[in-house]
């Protein structure tokens, strides 16, 4: 028999961190997604052991300042896109304000590290969220366009098509047919 | 900066096509490690090896002897261990219905085979770039669909 899951990755990660840090008697404070503040320093050997254990779960400790900031940029972008109240934000201002760096600094750093620009990443993430809303909720395209701060459904469709090569309708049809195909197989 | 390397596999029975692909990949700034296979069976034999390091992204030519791209795609998608791999199908002019069918059967990417080296480079660069973003972020791989 098949079982389907909705997975809350943030929660999953937090639970794994909690279990592992507590098991090792490490005092910590959970900050934003992906950030934990430890009380005191962790000697290299213990850190290595912890890294290895967490690695099994796909949790990778990020070291260099550049990577850390890039991850924070991505987290802030996610917050910005999922926040239904922030309807008329300008991404550059939002990021600069949240992270307390100039946008040009963040921009340069992000491009160097990820081979793409912040603007392009935001578009990818928006389209990704649109796909999530389309496949996991009953929201209409109009509602989705509104949630993601598009001026209209046609704007969403145009960006969707430009980014993926498919129209939202084709995408939905493919996802439905995929589910049907999998159901047939079991 | 980032020590992450993109592992790529290509199955294509045409030697020239494999070579062009290799050259195109080498000119793209993302760090990659490429494995080449003559046809689907060779690829599947490799993927089924115990403890093999799986590619992040597999390119399948549709028309290959012994085991073609579509059969390989179906076989890959039937194995949960291979689920994390992104699969790109590339072919010359399929019908819309057939293209959609490759997506329905689990392909993430469909590429219409370009006929110039320059175009091939551009297309591969776009695919790698897109795939890299999926590899390094938590974009949802289940809904990763890309058509060029």
Keywords:
heterodimer, A: 186 residues, two-stranded antiparallel sheet, 2 strands, globular, B: 148 residues, alpha/beta, six-stranded parallel beta sheet
Q: Which whole number gives the mean pLDDT of chain A?
A: 89
Going by helix content, strand content and strand pairing, the class of chain B is alpha/beta
Shape of chain B: globular
Cα Rg of chain B: 14 Å
**Oligomer status:** heterodimer
* General form of chain A: globular
Biggest sheet statistics of chain A: 2 strands, antiparallel
Helix content of chain A: 55-70%
Name the biggest interface: A-B, 28 and 24 residues
- Order of strands across the widest beta sheet of chain A? 1-2
Count helical runs of chain A: 9
Characterization of this structure:
With 186 residues, chain A is mostly helical. Chain A has 9 helices and 2 strands. Chain A has a two-stranded antiparallel ribbon with strand order 1-2. In chain A, helix 3 crosses helix 5 (103-114), helix 3 (65-82) packs across helix 6 (118-136) and helix 6 (118-136) packs across helix 8. The mean pLDDT of chain A is 89. Chain B is of the alpha/beta class and 148 residues long. Chain B has a 6-stranded parallel beta sheet with strand order 2-1-3-4-5-6, with helices on both faces. In chain B, helix 2 (40-47) packs parallel to helix 3 (69-77). The chains are: A mainly alpha (186), B alpha/beta (148). At the A-B interface, helix 3, helix 5, helix 6 and helix 9 of A face helix 4, helix 5 and strand 6 of B.
Q: What is this structure, in a nutshell?
A:
The complex is a heterodimer of chains A (186) and B (148). Helix content of chain A is 66%, strand content 3%. Chain A is built from nine helices and two strands, in the order αββαααααααα.
């Amino acid at each position: 028999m098949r079982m389907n899951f909705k997975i809350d990755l943030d929660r999953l990660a937090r639970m794994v961190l909690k279990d592992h840090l507590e098991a090792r008697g490490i005092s910590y404070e959970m900050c934003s997604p992906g950030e934990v503040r430890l009380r005191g320093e962790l000697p290299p050997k213990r850190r290595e052991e912890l890294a290895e254990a967490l690695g099994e779960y796909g949790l990778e400790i990020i070291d260099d300042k550049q990577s850390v900031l890039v991850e924070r940029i991505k987290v802030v972008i996610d917050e910005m896109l999922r926040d239904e109240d922030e309807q008329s934000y300008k991404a550059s201002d939002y990021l600069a304000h949240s992270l307390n760096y100039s946008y040009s600094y963040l921009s340069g750093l992000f491009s160097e590290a990820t081979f793409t620009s912040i603007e392009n990443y935001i578009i990818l993430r928006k389209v990704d969220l649109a796909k999530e809303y389309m496949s996991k909720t009953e929201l209409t395209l109009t509602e989705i366009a509104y949630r993601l701060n598009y001026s209209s459904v046609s704007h969403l469709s145009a960006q969707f098509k430009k980014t993926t090569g498919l129209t939202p309708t084709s995408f939905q049809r493919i996802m439905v047919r995929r589910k049907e195909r999998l159901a047939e197989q079991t | 900066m980032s020590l992450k390397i993109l592992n790529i596999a290509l199955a294509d029975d045409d030697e020239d096509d494999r070579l062009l692909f290799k050259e195109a990949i080498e000119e793209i700034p993302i760090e990659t490690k490429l494995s080449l296979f003559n046809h689907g069976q060779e690829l599947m034999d490799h993927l089924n090896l115990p403890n093999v390091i799986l590619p992040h992204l597999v390119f399948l030519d549709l028309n290959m002897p012994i085991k073609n791209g579509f059969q390989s795609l179906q076989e890959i998608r039937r194995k949960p261990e291979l689920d994390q791999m992104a699969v790109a199908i590339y072919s010359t002019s399929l019908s819309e219905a057939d293209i959609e069918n490759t997506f329905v059967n689990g392909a993430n990417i469909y590429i219409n085979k370009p006929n110039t080296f320059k175009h091939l480079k551009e297309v591969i660069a776009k695919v790698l770039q897109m795939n890299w973003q999926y590899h390094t972020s938590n974009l949802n791989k289940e809904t990763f669909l890309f058509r060029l």
